[in-house]
Amino acid sequence: MPKAIKIICVCGARPNFMKVAPLMRAFKAHGGFDVRIVHTGQHYDEKMSNLFFKELQIPEPDVNLEVGSGSHTMQTAEIMKRFEPVVLDFKPNYVLVVGDVNSTIACGMVAAKLGVKLIHVEAGLRSFDRTMPEEINRILTDAISDLLFVSEPSGVANLKREGISKEKIYFVGNVMIDTLMANLKKAAQSTILDELKLQPRKYGVITMHRPSNVDNSKRFTEIVYAFEQIQKELVLIFPIHPRTRKNLYKTKLGRHISSLKNFHIVDPIGYLDFLKLTSESRLVMTDSGGIQEETTILGVPCITLRENTERPVTITEGTNRLVNLTRQAIVGGFRKIMSNRSVSKAKRPKLWDGKAAERIVKIIAKIGL
Ligand code: UD1
């Protein structure tokens, strides 16, 4: 019998879990792999982590590094220190990392320094904004990866421009969309709309957690003022990230808006409830990366509360648009959508067909040890 290919699959923060889920299923279905899951513990709250493992039926992590929160440097360094012995012990043929969070670059660097081949899933995305911590993580991880799996054509162009040899680059589609497609039916059963007393298409969903929005008090205030205006015309639901909650309640405006009848702040919610909530919504306002992709597939208008996106295909083919981060521009973007003037005919980006993970696993199997 041929030797199994040994892989450590890393995950750490909420947006990683939906990317790892289809990969784990595809490794199992293919056979010939010995895969270990290492959770770094970057996200540790029940609702930011465990819930996703349960809902997406991801096998329990084999190891949890329990690194927790800290400054970016501390967090990255601590993950590296704790991950190295795990790699030395298991001696994998590959370390696989997904996305662009601190866990991605930390574990990627450990693999590269130990001479273990590194696989990056969701490679090549670029916002061209180096003040964004994720952009640094993306550039560095791609620079040291041996196999780069890309979700949209812009990623291939970016990697080539950075001098990455084309033999390492594979355009395979989007694993996040694999998870969305695999869970749509289950999500349809969610009772979240009843629980929150919402009518389909009669509410908007907000998510916001980026330091550039929530740690910058001037910008945060502009955005929250826009929400305050918008909730007069549409009920808004805001499943709130722990960082944002802390900052919101620090301000008078935040405390005021949280008390408004049409503005509902709720704890972070699970994958299935969130999918149901967004798919039935009138529009989404977000600074997340993945939600720009999910709304494109769901055909739900998305206002991205950022000056740039590393996922341009969601604008050229999908339902996404960027707005300036002033209250007028945000409210203007909202009004355009409400009057249907800017609804684009959303296309499904190429290879966002639910089979990206299968493609990735086939390629790794073919390359072998
Ligand atoms: C991280 C990712 C970001 C991703 C986001 C999704 C990086 C650089 N950023 O940002 O790309 O979009 O996850 O959520 O990796 N906290 C808790 N409980 C938790 C996790 C965090 O309370 O389970 C709080 C802590 O106070 C922590 C803060 O949230 O300091 C920020 O967490 P951190 O992991 O540093 O980054 P995120 O902002 O979540």
Characteristic key phrases:
single chain, 369 residues, alpha/beta, Rossmann fold, 2 domains, 7-stranded parallel sheet, 6-stranded parallel sheet, 17 helices, 16% strand, globular, binds uridine-diphosphate-N-acetylglucosamine
Write a concise synopsis of the structure shown.
The chain has 369 residues and is an alpha/beta fold. It has helices at 14-30, 50-55, 72-90, 102-114, 133-144, 153-161, 175-188, 192-195, 211-214, 217-230, 242-250, 252-258, 271-279, 290-298, 313-316, 327-338, 356-367; strands spanning 5-11, 33-39, 63-64, 94-98, 117-123, 147-150, 169-171, 203-207, 235-239, 263-266, 283-286, 302-304, 320-322.
What does this protein look like?
With 369 residues, this protein is of the alpha/beta class. The chain has 2 domains: 5-173 and 352-367, Glycogen Phosphorylase B (Rossmann fold), CATH 3.40.50.2000; 184-338, Glycogen Phosphorylase B (Rossmann fold), CATH 3.40.50. The protein has helices at 14-30, 50-55, 72-90, 102-114, 133-144, 153-161, 175-188, 192-195, 211-214, 217-230, 242-250, 252-258, 271-279, 290-298, 313-316, 327-338, 356-367; strands at 5-11, 33-39, 63-64, 94-98, 117-123, 147-150, 169-171, 203-207, 235-239, 263-266, 283-286, 302-304, 320-322. The strands form 2 sheets. The protein has a 7-stranded parallel β-sheet with strand order 3-2-1-4-5-6-7, sandwiched between helices. A 6-stranded parallel β-sheet has the order 10-9-8-11-12-13, sandwiched between helices. The two termini are 14 Å apart. The mean pLDDT is 96. Uridine-diphosphate-N-acetylglucosamine binds at residues 13-15, 42-45, 48, 69, 100-102, 133-134, 209, 241-243.
